[in-house]
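residues and backbone:
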Amino acid sequence: MPSRLLQVIALTLTALGLAPGAAHLLELPVKLAYPPALYAQVTSTLYALFGPIGGAVQMAAMVTVAVLAFRSRRLPQGRLLAASAAALLASLLLWAFLVAPVNGEWGSSADVSQAEFAAAYARLRARWEYGHVAAFIAWFAGWLGMAAAFTMPPPAGAGVRLQP
């Protein structure tokens, strides 16, 4: 198995990458009950650092797990790590295709009236919220696969040296 340091870095980054999705998931029932104007106000101000910081952490996690998968390709853990890296990539793609377009549309709604702004948020909030849920599920699956790979017992005879 590749270096313990790389494993710790991958576990840490991937666990940190769970935080934004978990936050969205926990907020979901409350935020969906908000009236459109309050939802628009909260959502347009609360998540300013989620993209720059959370996105960087998630990209670094995905790359680190992919490197581990490549370095472990001949080991039993390699397949689990490859599946984990694929799940992390799927999470980022889900976010890119479901959530990012909504962010773009909401951003272009900033220069309209308050009523039009709230209406834009009301129209797209289900896609934004459930897009985050889908991305979180994929990310969590990636983290679970990685944790399973790191806790697999070594193959029989690994680390045992025969005496001459």
Q: What stands out?
A: DSSP finds five helices and no strands in the chain. Residues 4-151 form one domain. The two ends are 25 Å apart (CA to CA).
